[in-house]
Amino acid sequence: MDRVIIFDTTLRDGEQAPGASMTIAEKLRIARQLEQLRVDIIEAGFPVSSPAQFEAVQRIAKEVREPVICALARTIEADVRAAGDALRTGLRTRIHTFVATSDIHLAAKFGDDRWGTTIEEKRATILEMTDRCVRLAREYTDDVEFSAEDAGRTDLEYLCQVVRAAVAAGATTVNIPDTTGYCLPNEYGGFFRTIRQRCELEGVTLSAHCHDDLGLAVANSLSGVLAGARQIECTINGIGERAGNASLEEIVMALKVRANRFGVHTDIETRRLTETSRMVSIATGFAVPPNKAIVGGNAFSHEAGIHQHGVLKSRETYEIMRAEDVGQTAEAIRLGRHSGRHGLFSRLEKMGIDMADRERGEIYRRFVDLADRKKEIHDEDLLHLVEQTQRETRTVHYRLEQVHVSTGTGREPRAEVLVQHIPSGTTCQETASGDGPINAVYKAIDQATGSHNDLVSYAIRSVSEGADAMGEVTVLIGEAGVFFRGVARSTDVLKASAEAYIEALNQLASFRVDQKSVDFVGDGIIQSFQGG
Length: 532
Fold this sequence. Notes:
This protein has 532 residues and is of the alpha/beta class. Helix content is 41%, strand content 20%. An eight-stranded parallel beta barrel has the order 2-3-4-5-6-7-8-9, surrounded by nine helices. A three-stranded antiparallel beta sheet has the order 11-12-13.
C-alpha cells in the first residue's frame, strides 16, 4: 500500500489556539514524544515571529533527530532566512513557506497599491513572491514545502498557476489548505483531482491541511487522501486556530481501520496515541473531552445494557478497534498513601510521562502530601502533580502567599490576598468586595498586582472521583486581542480559582517581556504582510 506522510503541526498551528502557548521545555518534551509516536515531520514553529519561537525551532532541530524538522515562513526573505538559520543544526530539515492566494485574502492582506492596483496585478505579485522565496528556501534545504493559503476559496485556474510556479521553483511538497474550514469533502477532494490533472507533479507530494470550522477537518483530509494527497497536516487532539485542526489520532485510526477502503498506511506507533494526547493536554491545559474519538475517556466505555451485553459476548459487536491499539489499556494499579516510589513512577511511565531525575524528588514529595489528603490517587491527580512541577520551570512574576474569603447569607463577599512580586521581592496585601467570592478574590489580586485585563472565561470541573475530588479551574484573560491561560487544581475551589488567575497573570507578564512576540500574534497572520 501507499504510505501517507503524517505532518504534525501541534507545536506551530496547534499552539496558535488561544491560551495554548507552550514553554520551550514543554515543546521539546512534546517533540520527543512525537518522535516516539513516529510522526514523519514535526512543524516546530514560526522562527521569525519571536526570539522564543526561533530558539524552540533551533533546539528541536538540534535535539530531535529522527523526524524531519520543519519551520514556517511567509514568502518574505527575512522569514525564509530566519527559518533557514533556525534549522542549521538539524539533521533532516524542511522550510515551509506560504502565501495567500484567494481574492478575499489578497484584498485584505495586499490591499496596498504597491502589490498591484488590480486583482490580476496582485495575483502576478503572488506568483513572483512564490518563485523568489521557494528558490531562496532551496538554498538552505532541498526539502521545501509551499502552501497556497486559503486554497479552499481560491479560483481553481489561478490556484493551478500558483502550484506550477512553486513546483518550477523547486518545491517538493505542495499543500492545498482549507485554511478557513469552508470546504465540503467532495469539493476539497475535487481540488486535488483537478491539480493532479492540470499540473506536472512528478516527484512532488500533495498535502492536505484542514481546519475544523464546520467540523469537517478530518473528513476533508480523508477526502484529500482518496483524491491523491499523500501528506496530511494535523495536530494532537485537533488543537489549533479557532475550532482547531484535523485530529492526528482520528486520521491515523481511520486510515488503519478502513485500510481496505483507502489502500494506504502510516508509520505511526498507534499504541502511543493516548499517552501523547495526555501530554499535549498537560502542556496546553486543554482537557480532552470524554467523548473525544480514539483518546477520550469514554471512547471504549459502554453504559447501555444492550451494548454491555453485546460487548461482553464479543467486543467487535460495538467496537471497531481495540483499546490496546491506541494505548487505552486499562490499568489496575491503585495508588494511595502506602504506595512507594516504584509504584508512582511505574504508573507515570505507563501514562507516557517521562520525568527528569531532578524532578522526581519533588513529584514524590507532592504525591505523598496529596495522598495524606485523598484516599486514592487517580490519573488526573497525577497529571496535576506533573503540571505543578513543570510550571516551576517557567518564569514566575507573582506568587500567591495567602487568600482569605468571608461570605455568608445577606453579606457581601470580601476577599483578602497577599501576593508576592518575585522580581522585586516585595509583597502586597489587598482587600476587595465583589458580586461573589471569586469575583472578590480576582478584584483583590488585580489591586495587588496592578493588573488591567479582561476576564474572558472561567471554568471549573471535577477532575477525579469521590467526595474528596479535586476541582480544576481554568481561567482565560485577554489583553489587546492576545489570550493567556491559567490552570490550577485543588480540593479547595477558592484556592484553585486564585492560583489559576495568578498563573494567567504570570503568562501575561512573561509575554509582555517579549513584546515583539505579542505584537506579532496580536496583529495576526492575516495582517502580517502589510508593511512587510
